[in-house]
Each structure stands twice: as C-alpha cells, then as structure tokens.
Amino acid sequence: MDTLTLIRPDDWHLHLRDDDALRAVVGASARQFARAIVMPNLKPPVTTVAHAQAYRARILDALAPAVAADPLCAGFEPLMTLYLTDRTAPDEIKRARDSGFVHAVKLYPAGATTNSDAGVTSIAAVRPALEAMQASGLPLLIHGEVTDAHIDVFDREAVFIETVLEPMRRDFPDLRIVFEHITTKEAAQYVAQASGPIAATITAHHLLYERNALFKGGMRPHWYCLPILKRETHRRALLEAATSGSPRFFLGTDSAPHAKDLKEHACGCAGCYTAPHALELYAAAFESVGRLDRLEGFASLHGPDFYRLPRNTSRVTLRRQSWTVPDSLPFGAERIVPLASGEALAWRLSS
Ligand code: DOR
Ligand code: ZN
Fold first, then answer.
1. Which CATH architecture has domain 9-311?
2. To the nearest 5 percent, what fractions of the chain are helix, strand and coil?
3. pLDDT < 50 regions, the chain
C-alpha cells in the first residue's frame, strides 16, 4: 500500500500560542487538520467567552497569510476552550455553551504544567462550574496529573486517577470528560472500561517513544513534555488503545511550540512540536503494529462523534515517500525544533 486516503482529520488538543509564535505555527496545523481544539493556557489565560472570541479572531487573522501561501490551509476552524479557575462562574459556562464557538473547558491542576498557575486548586473549588457543565453537556478536558511534589513525576497520572478523577466522576456521573494526552496503561484501561461519558486523547509522541528517548546518548530536551514519557509497557498499552477501534480514543497532538533556546536550556520548557508532521508521526505509530486501517477512526471519526460535531467530508492523502524532518523551522525572530528532527519518516502528506 503506497497511498493512504482519510477523511480529513481534526486535532483535539493543540497549543497555538499568540502573536509571532501563533503566526509561525498556525499554518502547520491548518495544512493537516480541518479543526483543532485550541488550548487556553496563554499568558494571561483565556478564562472568559469574550477572551475566547478575541483569541479566535487573532487566530483567523494569523491564518490568512498561510492560506494565501498554501490552499491546503483553507477552511481551518479553531474550536475554542476556556481555562477553568477557582472563580469560573456558572454563568460563564452557560455563555460558553450558547456561544457556538467555545466547545470545552480545560482543567489544569494549579502548577501541573506550562502556564497553569491560575489553574484549579481543588475540585471542591470548581463544583458550581462543574455542575453547570454537567447540566449543559459542555465537555471538561482534564490535564490528569497530581501536583504534590512528593509524588514521583512518573506516577502523577496514575495517582490522579485514584485520588481525583474517580471521586470526581462519582460526584458528576454525567459530566462529559476528555482525559487529555494519556500516557499510562492505567489511564488507557480506566478510559476503556469506565461507565459514563469519558474519552481520551493520545499524542503521537506517546505512541512512538518511551522514556529512554529522553536520555539517548545525552539529554534530549525536545522529547521533554508533560505528562512525561513513560516506560515501554505504557507505550504499548497506549498503542493498543489507539488502534483498538474504540470510539473513546482519538487524536490530540498536544503540539506545544517553544523556541529552540527555551528548550535547549538549563531549565527547559515542556512540550513537543509536532504540528508540521503530525499525521506522518501517527501513521508511523499505527503502521508499527500493522493497523493503518484503524487510523481514520482514531484521527477523523471518534473525535467529532464525542464532541457532537459533524464529521468532515473532504479527504487528505498520505503517500509512502521517505523524507527527513527538518533540523529547525522559523519561529518569529527565533527557531523551533520539530520533534524527531533529522529523522526519516516513511509517510508524507500530499499537497
Ligand atoms: O508538555 C506540555 N506542554 N504539556 C502541557 O501540558 C502544556 C504544554 C505547553 O503549553 O507547553
Ligand atoms: Zn497540552
């Protein structure tokens, strides 16, 4: 098989940033995806529908030159999210539901990751907002890691399931939840087996790499993201979940651009930049277990079904054609290093 044609996929978890960074990266996602759920962890965060509306307009403005340069970028739709805080009012949730352009609310435990300082300090603090979300059907997207410094960084997701997620779901059984960028077999099993409306996104990097990638021949900051890469047993469990055909698992790149200098740093930023070659990376992961036939469900069908949005109707084609991921790309006045730079990939999105 030398070509692979899919219904045009969507990215259900994406960081687009703002200003010069936004202008540098938005075209890469628009080339590959019809829609993307856009993360709200800007500085300051996107906490209101009015902020989300203004951010959406900035994204569409930044997109215009990309569309002029490459027609494949046309029609990209940013699906906006709100950043949940201890002060999010139930009325804001209702406004979000009625807006038509806010599609979810993101829960960052305070201190869990990049720009999460304004995040949630306890589930008790956000009860009124969660009640409003449960009533209105607006999905809650969860960064599922505990933040306690005494919990090992490799255990934070598994501990979160037991101590936060499971009790929360008992209290809010009808709350629609996406467990974001899952990284462990515990999370994959939990989502596959739980009763009620829960799904999970999985990144390409967590399907392709295990934690030794961080230390191969030296420190590899471009493989550092949160939640951090786990052991090989977890990677295999994620691959099994993604390729199982279960509608609970779908594509979310978590492409998280940071300038080269801030990644290759004494205290490097978390995040892997995968937007330019996301589908090619996912194709490599699915092909590694002989399941390219399941890529379309994961990339193009399960996400819109969970979000209750129409499936896309246009198509994209990948061709079997070896190419090398560039060493770096322009990023405003700086450079950015895409994940797996310098490595060969077997599939390439056709123009
Ligand atoms: O690695 C990550 N980078 N994980 C996150 O949760 C946030 C993201 C970012 O915004 O850079
Ligand atoms: Zn993210």
1. Alpha-Beta Barrel (3.20)
2. 40, 20, 40
3. none
